[in-house]
Amino acid sequence: MNISNYFKNCLPLGFSIFLLIVALKVNNSYQKPYIVIPKQSNAWNLNAKMLQNYHLGLRRLESSFLWISTIIESDIDHYKQRDLNSWMFLRFNTISMLEPKFYENYSFGGIYLSVIKDDLEGASIIFNKGLEIYPKDYKLLKDASYHFFYEIRDYKRSFQLTQTLKKNFNYQLPLVGMITKLEAENGKLEEALLTLTQYQNNYPKGSVIGDKIFKNRYSLKAEIDLSCLNSKVQTNCSLLDLNNMPYIKFNNLFKAQSDWQPYRRKSFIKK
């Protein structure tokens, strides 16, 4: 009689264990859907103006907290809209209001928005804000020049930045092509030629880079000399090209003996 009661008492427990085993097997055999919520949809952003007015003297603490959380939570999803509502731009912009002299916010934030997030408008604002505080910073000038030249195609802004860069720094070779083409497009052919000539000393003819520089120098010198010779107004024009070959006159126009084309961006030449 006691044994019978014992089994009756144990029956619910055994049945519960059985159900747990079944549930475990079903759970392991069923592949649950992988749900991904984009950071753009669940990121939180505080009102920047509100923080500016009610920071309670804790600007650096608040900006540091926002910076750390932004770096930790940063994603690589491209932002397709052009409405300045990217969550990372809003964070960087808020930080710039709380702590305007926070350099990394501009040097990292600008390039991250431009290259990783593809938020071009947001990157432009962050770069410009950074250059207002650090107008002669090499990294900001270099990255912003690339951004406005290749991404935004704002060649006027890029030219301004490259001229500041050229006046204050010994810039690296990858910048030479961009700087000299912008100079040529803005009528500064002699300055572009001088810049390329200086770099020709480091990359003599016979190498791939050296031959490319020489070809571009030839185009610039030919354009300068032929413009002078064919104007029929200027004097002291050079009669020899970069190969020390004389320009030839045909149908009352001077021409170079070697083929050349204006040293410009391809899109600029098409126009």
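the 2nd protein, sequnce then structure:
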Amino acid sequence: MAVCKSCGEEADELVSVKVGGKTKKVCAECAERLEAEDAVGQESEAAVQRMMDFKGRR
């Protein structure tokens, strides 16, 4: 059985997910949570950029 790098629990299958520029092998539940957190972070950054009329990218 494979062990999830995020929650530490055993899982049948692990999914590769990019988090902060690094690839992690996590279970499907953690992958969904990490992708949702990443989407919220990107939208938050975009909202701040729009508010400050920032036209470039990092």
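The beta strands are 2-3, 10-11, 15-19, 22-26. The longest helix spans residues 28-51.
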